[in-house]
């Protein structure tokens, strides 16, 4: 008889538990702030391209600072890096509240968003590579599953929280975000973290290139992260949500446009959360590569249907499915990155992964806004979903190792 799977094994480690609770609280605030900021800019401009610029401003720090942040995560104390960046994010949230209250110029919003995104980029490799220090190797997949559940829970509740606060007071969303940053700082400070592996000091460009070279030489990693990059680049509809909530979908259930926006933004997270809970209670994937390919393909199909929909219920259901399908690829990708990468390189490899995924989200938002202005929001979303499906078919042929990959638990350091 096979040993019974303990779905809550990772939670039994106090430091990991502190990290996840801190992320839960912090991401609730950042999700609420992101929704409020996008809404405020769209209401003031009435221009979907302005939402594309939001995505671009968030994406520039991703491109500029993520690789240096990966080197920092491998050179210096990862928890200390996170603490400093959280303090900076607290300050930018307070500044956003002040600029919003004063009805300041739009360029100030974009500037503060750039600074806030810079702090987030600097902390991402350190945060992602901290988790493997807190869990035994055989529980990393379980930890990744619960980390994904926490992220999706906040993506579900954060927009709902943001919509509620936004209908009461715009500036309060920024102040709540600042408070959640402080809460995360306190939880991190109380953690006991094992000593991380040391790597020989070289020029930071040389160290950063080692992370790129590592991913390039491991075709299973390259196929996994590049699939999400290209698919999300074309398939994301998140940044156009204010347009659909206010101008395309008819009123439903007596909801205001702000409340509709909150529900639409919460739908992908609801799907991811349900998918994550189911996956967390199941044994490890036996055909992880095939599951990921089907998940991304389903993401594209649901995106196309959402683009054509003129029903709030159908639109919500399709966004729910995009989240459910996307969570499969998230679990596979993050588990592989953590398992096949030595600890001394985790910061840099995580940075490369973050650039692939994060830049696709933000640049994909810019692409969606640009296509929406040139043609229409519907064409922007539908064409992106079709492109996502084409990408999956192409990657299935280009990366046979990914297509055939089996149990994540069988992956090893150096697995190609």
Q: How would you describe what is shown here?
A:
This protein is mainly alpha-helical and 416 residues long. The protein has a single domain, classed as Growth Hormone, Chain: A (Up-down Bundle), CATH 1.20.1250. 80% of the residues lie in helices and 0% in strands. It has 15 helices and no strands. It has helices at residues 14-45, 48-75, 78-101, 106-134, 140-168, 170-189, 204-217, 219-235, 241-248, 257-280, 288-308, 312-340, 346-374, 377-398, 400-404. α11 packs antiparallel against α12. The longest helix has 32 residues, at 14-45. The chain is globular. The chain starts with 13 loop residues before the first helix and ends in a 12-residue tail after the last helix. The relative contact order is 0.17.
- Looking at the structure, the CATH topology is Growth Hormone, Chain: A
Count of individual beta strands = 0
How large a portion of the residues is in β-strands, by DSSP E? under 5%
Give the ordered list of helices and strands: HHHHHHHHHHHHHHH
Largest sheet: none
Query: In angstroms, what separates the terminal alpha carbons?
Result: 32 Å
Shape: globular
CATH second-level architecture: Up-down Bundle
CATH C-level label: Mainly Alpha
How much helicity do the residues have? over 70%
Q: Notable features of this structure?
A:
globular, Growth Hormone, Chain: A, 416 residues, single chain, mainly alpha, 0% strand
Topology:
Layout: H1 14-45, H2 48-75, H3 78-101, H4 106-134, H5 140-168, H6 170-189, H7 204-217, H8 219-235, H9 241-248, H10 257-280, H11 288-308, H12 312-340, H13 346-374, H14 377-398, H15 400-404
Helix pairs in contact: 1-2, 1-4, 1-5, 1-6, 2-4, 2-7, 2-13, 3-4, 3-6, 4-13, 5-6, 5-10, 5-12, 7-13, 8-11, 8-12, 8-13, 8-14, 9-10, 10-12, 11-12, 11-14, 13-14
């Amino acid at each position: 008889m096979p040993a019974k799977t303990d779905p809550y094994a990772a939670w039994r480690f106090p430091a990991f538990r502190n990290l996840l609770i801190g992320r839960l609280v912090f991401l609730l605030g950042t999700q609420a702030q992101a929704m409020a900021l996008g809404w405020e800019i769209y209401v003031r401009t009435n221009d979907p391209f302005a939402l594309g610029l939001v995505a671009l401003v968030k994406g520039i720090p991703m491109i500029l600072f993520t690789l240096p942040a990966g080197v920092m995560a491998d050179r210096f104390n990862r928890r200390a890096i996170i603490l400093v960046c959280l303090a900076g994010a607290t300050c930018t949230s307070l500044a956003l509240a002040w600029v919003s209250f004063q009805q300041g110029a739009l360029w100030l919003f974009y500037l503060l968003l750039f600074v806030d995104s810079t702090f987030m980029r600097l902390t991402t490799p350190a945060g992602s590579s901290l988790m493997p220090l807190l869990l035994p190797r055989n529980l990393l997949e379980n930890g990744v599953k619960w980390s994904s559940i926490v992220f999706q829970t906040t993506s579900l509740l954060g927009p709902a929280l943001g919509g509620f606060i936004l209908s009461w007071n715009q500036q309060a969303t920024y102040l709540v975000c600042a408070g959640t940053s402080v809460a995360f700082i306190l939880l991190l400070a109380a953690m006991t973290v094992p000593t991380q592996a040391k790597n020989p000091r070289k020029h930071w460009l040389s160290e950063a290139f080692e992370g790129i070279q590592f991913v390039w030489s491991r075709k299973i990693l390259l196929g996994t992260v590049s699939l999400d990059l290209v698919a999300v680049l074309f398939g994301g509809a998140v940044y156009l949500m204010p347009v659909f909530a206010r101008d395309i979908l008819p009123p439903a259930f007596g909801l205001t446009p702000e409340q509709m926006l909150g529900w639409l933004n919460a739908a992908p997270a609801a799907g991811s959360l349900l998918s994550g809970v189911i996956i967390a209670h199941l044994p490890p994937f036996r055909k992880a590569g095939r599951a990921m390919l089907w998940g991304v393909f389903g993401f594209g199909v649901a995106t196309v249907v959402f683009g054509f929909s003129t029903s709030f219920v159908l639109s919500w259901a399709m966004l729910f499915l995009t989240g459910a399908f996307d969570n499969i690829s998230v679990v596979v990708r993050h588990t592989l990155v953590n398992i096949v990468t030595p600890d001394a390189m985790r910061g840099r490899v995580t940075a490369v992964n973050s650039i692939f995924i994060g830049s696709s989200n933000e640049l994909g938002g810019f692409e969606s806004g640009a296509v929406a202005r040139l043609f229409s929001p519907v064409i922007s979303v539908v064409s992106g979903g079709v492109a996502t499906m084409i990408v999956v078919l192409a990657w299935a042929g280009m990366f046979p190792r990914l297509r055939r990959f089996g149990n994540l638990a069988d992956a090893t350091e150096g697995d190609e």
